[in-house]
Amino acid sequence: MTSLIPSTRDRLVLNAALLFRQKGYHGVGVAEILARAKAPKGSLYHHFPNGKADLALAAADWASAQMQRVAADAFETAKSFDAGATTFCFKLAKLFDLSDHWDGCPVSSTLFEGPQNQAFREKAASVFSGWIDQIAEYGRAAGLPRDIARDRAEALFIGLEGAWVLARALKTSGPIKRLPRLLGFAPGSGDG
Amino acid sequence: MTSLIPSTRDRLVLNAALLFRQKGYHGVGVAEILARAKAPKGSLYHHFPNGKADLALAAADWASAQMQRVAADAFETAKSFDAGATTFCFKLAKLFDLSDHWDGCPVSSTLFEGPQNQAFREKAASVFSGWIDQIAEYGRAAGLPRDIARDRAEALFIGLEGAWVLARALKTSGPIKRLPRLLGFAPGSGDG
DNA sequence: CTACGTGTAGACCAATCGGTCTAATCCCAG
DNA sequence: CTGGGATTAGACCGATTGGTCTACACGTAG
Prior knowledge:
By secondary structure, chain A is an all-alpha fold. Chain A has helices spanning about 10-25, 30-35, 40-45, 50-75, 80-100, 105-110, 120-140, 145-170, 175-180. Chain A has a domain at about 55-180: Tetracycline Repressor, domain 2. Chain A is built from nine helices and no strands.
């Protein structure tokens, strides 16, 4: 069972994920993460011997899992792939609004603004591939051919990443909400 | 006429733009910018009294202008809006490959990883709106109705931002090159 | 010549950075 | 109880951060 009080390690990962998403890897100091997690420095370097970089990789995994849960919520109750994609976008638009119209892709913020090393890039590649695979699987389950499902999943991913960027600049979730229509997922918008 | 030796101010903006694009606002120190621009600290704070923040805003403008030149090159010689959009994507894919498959949107890197203040967000909004307006204008010039042109322009922008993200993670310009097809701009791909 | 505004040059500063290290504490095994 | 690994606690470190400040070089106006 899960404890009501998260472990020190979990508090570190959770708060790191939130902060990295808001301010980017270099925009957050370990001191700030430690303060929010109410953990001393020794604990950080005990659980993550490589320090901030290790923590960022763990935070990216945590954020990825959370995003996949949102996707699962949307797609697994939907009557069609298009309906699932639409619900997914609207759920993310809602979360975006709740973050003062600021939070975009947690993985981009965490990994792309960090050191340009191979580990970070590979982690980003594996996380993003995982998302696209997951969404493509929902397409398959809804009866789409394999390559069509993959194309639709990639389109949704790309559209979402782009919409996050525009939404942040314009301070409105409009682009995210319009995404289903733009991609042809919305009812009456085309070949969906 | 333009001098062969750029002014100190121009060297600062140019090098800041390149570095911010690669490493994000917080990922670059003023010392690094100064070293590349071969300028002393006093010059930076003479030309940009607010220091790094002012420089980032100027760098965003510079990067924006450069991007608009690429768009102009692509669209103004194209026979149709769709052809222009396709050429634009391929030009950007080429530039992406030349940057070791790394450089994405220069404005996102420069402004979104910086301090979350209003000035930065508003600058991003005005720059992105400028891009979309410009592309929509090419659509208008090619005979598209106003609202259709705007929709297509926004779709291209969103797709491009998203493709940059995926391309960086996967270390391939594939997503950028496939964008015209994904958006229905490529020949034989739909209603374009 | 002097006077002055623009811009260059870099020493210098407090604050913060990520990281190391030792000591103390906790908790279970025996 | 004792022993000992796991974890917490935070002082401490050198390096780097963005920014300030003074000195001076340069060109032009008077």
